[in-house]
Amino acid sequence: MIFVLRHGIPEGMLWSVRYLQRMDLRVIPVILLLMGLSLAVISAQTGGEGFLSVKAITQLKWFGLGSLVYLAFAGFDYGKLREWAWIVYGVILLALVAVFFSQARAGVHRWLVIPGVSFGLQPSELAKLVVVLALSWFLERRRTVSLSWGTAVGACFIVGIPFLLILKQPDLGTAMVLWPISLVMFYFGGVRPTLVRAMVGVSLLGLVIMLSIFLGLVDHEAMRPYATKVLKDYQYERLNPDTYHQRAAQIAIGCGGLTGQGWKKGEFAGRGWLPAAETDSVFPSLGEEFGFIGMLLLMVLFYTLIYFGFQVTAVAKDHFGRLLSAGITVYLAMHVLTNMLMMCGLMPITGVPLILITYGGSSTLVTMAALGTLQSIFARRFLF
Fold first, then answer.
1. Contact partners, residue 179, CB within 8 Å, separation at least 6
2. Could you tell me if 188 and 212 are in contact, meaning their C-beta atoms sit under 8 angstroms apart?
3. The model's pTM
4. pLDDT above 80 (res 104)
5. What is the tens place of the pLDDT at every residue in 144-173?
């Protein structure tokens, strides 16, 4: 360590505290404020007379562990991830297969139970970040032949295998997050424009159909015979704009008004009328307690975080760093947009977590690893 401080960072060194000194420290207060809002909402929705509920204390522990993960990735040389990309990708595919041999929870196979500990790991959360890493490695290696169909097919396979495994769990929401991530990375990676345009077309078509149903332009039941040829009944039912969960989320947001009902004073969510108030529905929970002002603050914080991600993409020193940072930034942005749009009644509710706000360990650790990786790319922007 003394050698590093006096003489700089030796070439090939995996981790160094010197890189932490080059981080963009403006992001740290944003992350801490998001964590603070998360603890406030979780504590309010999970009971307890003290300042923090039992679940909020558990989340605080996850934030502590996540902070260590953040620093570990920030000081780590992201370029070394190239060497481990396919190993990590292979491990996550094995994990996604292994969940089908684990005990189902609520009829779905999404968690791996770790022996000796009291929590489970959700491989699908980590898979999204691993797909970004694998695509970055692949598209950088194929940069000179990025327009070939071989590159397009290979990139589709990298995304398609985990996509299908996650869809099989079933976890439609998590699987669908991979689509916009892939689209942006294909564009930045110079993949054949025909494929990118086709993906944009499919995305727009899906968006038009979804909004038509949710805005009442197309009758939900009238579309059922056609949609169930592709989707299962319970999957199509999520497209119903008039479910109890959809109505409850919008009522909770409306109850908050401009300034909210106050911390731990939200009656609608507090009485248990809002499903999954500390997980999927944490956004309307926050809206009821802190109102439009609280939701606006949350959106400003998320905007700052995502803006930082695109700044990193602009200053990254190499193609791998640009692809990796772009994929991570879209990963963060899609979680924010998808969760908020779901709770506002513009998208079906599919269980996509609101990063750093939703209660849960897997999402917290993966998000902190992603943010740490962005800091690693930023800290090395002038190193060659």
1. 163, 199, 203
2. no
3. 0.88
4. no
5. 888 899 999 999 999 999 998 888 877 777
Residue 287 predicted with pLDDT over 50:
yes
Alpha-carbon dihedral sign for residues 219, 225, 226, 227 = positive
Question: How far is residue 215's CA from residue 268's CA, in Å, rounded to a whole number?
Answer: 25
Q: Output DSSP code: residue 110.
A: -
Q: Residues 141, 320: contact at Cβ < 8 Å?
A: no
CB-based contacts of 184: which residues, under 8 Å, 6+ apart? 326, 327, 330
182, pLDDT greater than 60: yes
Query: Count of CB atoms within 10 A of residue 244's CB?
Result: 11
Tokens of 258: 């401009």
d(CA 142, CA 144): 6
| pLDDT mean over 170-177 | 78
How far apart are the C-alpha atoms of 233 and 117, rounded to whole Å?
Answer: 36
CA angle at 166 for the pair 352 and 279, rounded to the nearest 5°: 25
The stretches of the chain forming alpha helices (DSSP H) are 2-7, 17-20, 27-45, 54-75, 81-98, 123-141, 149-168, 172-188, 193-214, 220-227, 233-237, 244-256, 267-270, 282-315, 319-343, 361-379
Cβ density class 114-136: b for 16+ within 10 Å, e for less: eeeeeebbbbbbbbbbbbbbbbb
The band of 3, judged by pLDDT with boundaries at 50, 70 and 90, is very low
Q: Is 8 left (phi over 0), alpha (psi -120 to 50) or beta?
A: left
Question: CA-CA distance, 136 to 134, in Å (whole number)?
Answer: 5
CA distance 204 to 202: 6
pLDDT of residue 5: 38
- The answer to whether the CB of 54 falls within 8 A of the CB of 61 is no
What is the helix (H) or strand (E) element at residue 120, kind and residue range?
strand 120-121
